[in-house]
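Deviation from plan, reported transparently: coenzyme A complex.
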Amino acid sequence: MSASEVRLAPLSLAHAPAMLRWMREPSVRWGVGVRAEPSMARTVEWIHRALSPDSGVHAFAILEAGQHVGNVVLDRVDAWLGTARLSIYVGESTHRGRGVGRAAVNLVLRHAFRTLGLFKVWLVVHEENAAARRTYASLGFVEEGRLRGEFLLGERRVDALYMGLLASEMPHVDEEVTT
Ligand SMILES: CC(C)(COP(=O)(O)OP(=O)(O)OC[C@H]1O[C@@H](n2cnc3c(N)ncnc32)[C@H](O)[C@@H]1OP(=O)(O)O)[C@@H](O)C(=O)NCCC(=O)NCCS
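Because the crystal trials were delayed, the predicted structure below was used instead.
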């Protein structure tokens, strides 16, 4: 897989069945921190809300060589502070560990900093999510805080890590990756 095979497309209702399938997988559901039991009704409602113009949500389907393999989302956009939260999942497990996640985060950071003009992108990741932490760290995110026990993996509490990346820290990001 080359990073240039990864593209982002606006999320739409057509992506709902794959989203639901992925949300039912514990690795995705727990990694992302979804609380409610996933259902098609909730998935469709979430997409509808994300697509409404005043939602403050920028949701993208991740396409690898044209195939929908996951989603990446910016939400909680704070126009006053110039900040937004990032979340991502490569739902197709066979597509993980091949650079797709890193390339997709890279692309959405370009959108955040270059298109939206944000100051900072932040995220929350649980401390045991090695793949996600490695992905974010490799793009320059730094740990900004640790909230003890604020992430539930089933009934087990683990620490939640807040990570952030400033626009001024972006220039190192791969130039060859384009939307
Ligand atoms: C986290 C996630 C998006 C990463 O995407 P990915 O395509 O698997 O990751 P990549 O192949 O782009 O790898 C990115 C980095 O993570 C590292 N990595 C990948 N899988 C790893 C694993 N299982 N353990 C440790 N590091 C791992 C890679 O080596 C790479 O680091 P490097 O650039 O220093 O070599 C993906 O694993 C996923 O969707 N997980 C389930 C949902 C989730 O947890 N989302 C994040 C919520 S905060």
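Confidence is low (pLDDT under 50) at residues 175-179. We consider this an acceptable substitute for the interim report.
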